[in-house]
Amino acid sequence: MRPINLIPPEERRGGQAPLRSGPLAYILVGALVAVLAGVTSLVLVNNQIDERESEVARLEIEDAREAAKAERLAAYVQFRELSEQRVATVTSLADSRFDWERVMRELALILPTDAWLVGLTATAGASAEGAEGGGGGSGLRSASQGPALELSGCAVGHEAVARFVTALEDIDAVTRVGVQSSELPDPSGEGDSGGEGGGSESGDECRTRGFITKFEIVVTFDAAPVPVAAAGSEVPASTETASGEESESEEGAEGE
Question: What local confidence, expressed as pLDDT, does residue 18 receive?
């Protein structure tokens, strides 16, 4: 026969008593799970923070290394920039350089025997003084921004001056030849050299005879490039003919 327990279930004790369950057990389990999740998250966050801090430290070390390297190479960068600037300057000057030697050689070849120079000024560009209209051939000179020659001298009459102007136009690259003045001596004697054998006190008066004409001519080269650094500055110029050449020209004029 199988025994039958007649004790009501709620009053039974021991192994036969039913399990008692309630919300407290579920709350406890949930709290444990939450605590475990929090600890896990905290550990993961701490690990990420450590990794980020290590990466930041590594990047700072690399940045310091690259900064030191850039500082060592800064001198080479400055040298390269300076080299490029100098190359650009030299290239600009070479492109805008004017061949004064050729011009002087051609001027010596076309200079007629019945004309001679007492002064020559070569400028690469119009100066500020010339632009304001100050003395000499500045009136014609200021009209051109390119290289120009300012010539002063004497010739045997106005016809010789005209022939000299025509000859100057044959110089290569000449664009204009302007006559600033062409004057014979004053018949009254004022402003003259003081006699046929005398000379001028200033040293630039070459009209020693009544038929000798003193001229001022400006020869311009407008098509030539103007150097940026040399614009308005004078290049080697202002030369005077030798007294022997003057006397030879005068003797040739008297022979005619």
Answer: 52
Decide if 231 contacts 178 (C-beta within 8 A).
Answer: no
Collect the ranges in the chain with pLDDT lower than 70.
Answer: 1, 12-22, 93, 95-96, 127-138, 188-204, 225-256
pLDDT confidence of residue 202: 46
Residue 158 pLDDT? 92
The strand ranges marked E within the chain are 115-123, 148-156, 176-183, 212-220
Q: If you write DSSP's letter for every residue of 215-239 in order, what string do you get?
A: EEEEEE-TTSPPPTTTTTPBPS---
Helix-helix angle 157-168:100-110, to 10 degrees: 140
Question: Of 161, 125, 154, which is closest to residue 142 (Cα–Cα)?
Answer: 125
What number of other Cβ atoms are within 10 A of residue 146's Cβ? 20
Distance between CA atoms of residues 122 and 239, nearest Å: 10
Residue 24: its pLDDT value, please? Answer: 80
Residue 19: per-residue pLDDT: 52
Contact assessment for residue 142 and residue 117, using Cβ atoms and an 8 Å cutoff:
no
Longest CA–CA separation in the chain, Å: 179
- By DSSP bridging, strand 176-183 and strand 115-123 are unpaired
Answer for the pair 179, 215: CB distance below 8 angstroms, yes or no: yes
Q: Which residue from 208, 247, 243, 235 is spatially nearest to 103, judged by alpha carbons?
A: 235
> Do strands 115-123 and 212-220 pair parallel, antiparallel, or not at all (unpaired)?
unpaired
| DSSP-based three-state secondary structure for 61 | helix
